[in-house]
Specification:
Shape: globular
Number of strands: 12
Strand order of the largest sheet: 3-2-1-6-9-10-11-12
Order of helices and strands: HHEHEEEEEEEHEEEE
Radius of gyration: 17 Å
Structural class: alpha/beta
Helix content: 25-40%
Strand content: 15-25%
């Protein structure tokens, strides 16, 4: 992670490959530059706190939470026959959705992974299913060995944090927001994370794009309500 006074460089890999790039601030909106700097500093500290708490969870707890989240997402999206569902390669204690991708394929869906092309550009999505070859991409994150660009119908986006309006606190590089902004047809975007990742607000800016819903082991949050809807 680059310091504010150093040139931005790729650093530690992230689940959805978002990394801090101080050059990417997006439009500051109603905030002045100092206000945006303060928000960015706050997000960095909050991001580090939430990741540390996530990593402190016992492995068995994370696995159980991940299975519960995956089951809820499968119920939420319903019939996947012929649809393309993109997930991600897990990182730093995130819910492991690789079994979810296998289950989507079993149910007749097609699966994909996000791929970083280069810094400052939107992500690409490439078809991939369990058992197919992988190679190391940026930050040594596995990506499909055979490029098969696609436009997913559903995108599963892991969150570091999320708020009541389903804005996502990610890793700060802006890849995900650029990707959605560049799409002519927006897919359904489902954020996933642990219930402990919920915060009061991420202080959203004009470049931030909210999730359609956020699914945790405790329930589903939607932008229309201010509380998590518990599932039975």
């Amino acid at each position: 992670m680059a310091d504010d006074d150093e040139p931005a460089t790729f650093a530690s890999p992230a689940c959805f490959l978002h990394e801090i790039d101080p050059a990417y601030c997006g439009p500051p909106g109603p905030l002045d530059r100092q206000a945006w700097t303060d928000v960015n500093r706050w997000r960095k500290a909050e991001r580090e706190r939430l990741i540390a708490e996530r990593l402190a969870l016992p492995v068995a707890t994370r696995l159980a939470h991940g299975e519960a989240i995956a089951a809820r997402v499968l119920d939420e999206i319903g019939d996947v026959t012929g649809r393309i569902v993109s997930a991600y390669w897990p990182f730093r204690g995130e819910p492991d959705f690789r079994p979810f991708l296998t289950e989507v394929a079993k149910r007749g869906g097609r699966t994909a992974l996000p791929v970083v092309v280069e810094k400052g550009r939107p992500l690409e999505f490439h078809l991939w299913q369990t058992g197919e070859a992988l190679v190391c991409g940026v930050w040594n994150i596995p990506i499909p060995a055979e490029p098969k660009p696609c436009r997913p119908d559903i995108v599963i986006a892991p969150v570091v944090g999320f708020d009541a309006t389903c804005y996502r606190l990610g890793y700060g590089g802006g890849f995900f927001d650029r990707t959605l902004a560049a799409m002519t047809e927006k897919p359904r975007v489902i954020g996933i994370g642990y219930s402990g990742s919920r915060i009061a607000t991420i202080y959203p800016q004009l470049h931030d794009i909210p999730m359609d819903i956020v699914v945790t082991e405790a329930g589903i949050a939607t932008p229309q309500v201010s509380t998590v809807r518990a599932l039975t």
